[in-house]
Amino acid sequence: MSPSGKPVPPRDSLTSEINKPDFRELDLGSPVSPLRSQPRGLTTTTTTTSSSSSSSSGSVTRHPPVIGRSGSVRGSQSGSSSGNLRTSQARSDSVTSNSQPLVSSSTQSSATSPATAANVLPTGNICPSGKIQLTGMTQSRSRSDVLGSGTGTYGHGSIMRGGGGSGVSPAKPVAPVTVGGSIRSSPAAMLGSDAEEVKRVGNEMYRKGLFGEALRLYDRAIALSPANAAYRSNRAAALTGLGRVGEAVKECGEALRLDPNYGRAHQRLASLLIRLGQADSARKHLCFLGKPSDPMELQKLEAVEKHMSKCADARRLGDWKAALMEVDAAIVSGADFSPQLVMCKVEALLKLHRLDAAHSKLLEVPKVEPFPASCSQSRFSGMACEAYTHFVKAQVEMALGRFENAVMAAEKASKLDPRSNEVAMLHNTVTLVARARVRGNDLYKSERYTEASSAYAEGLRLDPCNAILYCNRAACWFKLGMWERSIEDCNHALRFQPRYTKPLLRRAASNSKMERWAAAVSDYEALRKELPHDKEVAESLFHAQVALKKSRGEEVLNMEFGGEVEEVYSREQFKAAMNLPGVSVIHFSTASDHQCKQLSPFVDSLCTRYPSIHFLKVDIDKCQSIGNAENVRVVPTVKIYKNGTRVKEIVCPNKEVLEYSVRHYSS
């Protein structure tokens, strides 16, 4: 029995879809749907009678009254009055002189009505039971169903449950909800205390994809009937729709605590555990009756088990490419919300020296909060699943040079799985490497470069793929004037982290010290792409380019770095600029043009970033002869000359095209 006194219907069969709530409806026994809208214009007309006490006669159109247990009668009337008409057992005055008298149900007498429509619904509020008492059909009831109270809600379709007694208790005010500029009441606020009715409306919200509203309705149903396992299972479905898988697992567990034999909850929990990659636990719930309740889910489970087993084997053998493939296959098979599978992918990318991809994938790990207690003892590749997450995170943090974070992650993994040898070894390694790095940094700051290099070497012995330690040791070799060894360590660092700019900068500086100008220019140009606004890199590149030209015997006229855009005032000055060796970029503009004003600051920035190129500007309003000679009709126009020959002309260039052209002809 439900708290409201209604019998609770049996649960659904297990053949329904597991990702939907239980759509169990309560048969209200009404000849019409309790939520069916009344057809427009349909009324019941009473017979006109004469009375000696009346002062007038005529026809009155009115709906059949609804008679509650307490004897109160409510109806609606149209004609001479548009308001709500209320009578009670205590009132002695007549409604109108031409209307039939209203009869209380407490007298168990029937009222006569010449015309009665069996399928006509009264206007106003709808009784939760869906039963409508018509005139002439008075009957006793086990509980009172009364309409809404007062003009505040009467006639707007709100559902209310009336209490016992001789009077009608007023309805609680419903706070309006503003939606799209209009005011309406939310479904949860309009429902009464019938848990099944609340659940039914929640199911409707779920069908429409309104999982948040469905969740609120299921919460209310649970508050009305806390011992109902179906409500908990439905709540798990809504949480799953919102992506809150960890909470959904917990809710299924609560449903099974209330009813250990509830098949729908077992099946739903099995589906969630498959998504989490918890194959062993999922099998227990899927086959809780000794055989699988859903063959499709069993097929999915077997596929996930197969690929996860192959993934663990590949990881144990160090075949990281195979591990990546098996992880993707397991996710496609159904384990799409498994943190340990995504962390295995992160670890594989890290071992393949794809640190940037590993770091990006680390941000995509599904968050399962709270982590299900039923999954805390499950293991992946020999260690606890939750510990494995911190195990991989510690490795990523150490590779990124965040040694303190790595130590904390390793400590968490060790606490979660103190029996795992692999976790214990990582914890020890991370701790020792972090100490070696701190000791090396302190020695470097004290200018004890030889001892610092030894400290970094100790860390590399424990972690031979750590690019940070290689880069730090390269700095020691540079300070000691050992350029070749510095370049060698920089190469190691770049092999493990190709986009790591510090070893690239140190290698460029070492090449410059050894007068390997071509290699230095190549490194500085690569740095300029990564750090386009770094003036130190631009200046170093300029000097390396000058030194390279000198080493080749080329004439270098511009020996000054960081020159500004030169403004041209005469044709002679323009001809001299065009004939300069190297690359010259000439910007034709006018002071009044808006687009020229926007482009000029960008040309100034290019002059700073490409110091080996000559940048000039010509105002064609001031030097019309140059504009006519160069046939400039539209501004802004940019022309590029190389060794006195025009190689490119761009009319109204955008910034991307202009920089690409400058970079292309400067190489």
From TrEMBL:
Classification via CDD domains: TRX_family
Bias kind Pro residues: ranges: 1-10
Pfam families named among the record's database cross-references: Thioredoxin, TPR_16, TPR_19, TPR_8
InterPro entries, per database record: Thioredoxin-like_sf, Thioredoxin_domain, TPR-like_helical_dom_sf, TPR_rpt, TTL1-4
Disordered as annotated region, ranges: 1-173
Record's compositionally biased regions (Gly residues): 149-167
Coiled coil: none
Domain Thioredoxin: 570-658
An annotated GO cellular component: cytoplasm
SUPFAM superfamilies with a match to the protein in the record: Thioredoxin-like, TPR-like
Record's compositionally biased regions (Low complexity): 43-57, 68-83, 94-119
Placement of TPR repeats on the sequence: 195-228
Keywords annotated in UniProt: Repeat, TPR repeat
GO biological process: response to stress
Gene3D superfamilies tied to this protein: Glutaredoxin, Tetratricopeptide repeat domain
Ranges of biased composition (kind: Polar residues): 84-93
Name the record gives this protein: Thioredoxin domain-containing protein
Phylogenetic lineage: Eukaryota, Viridiplantae, Streptophyta, Embryophyta, Tracheophyta
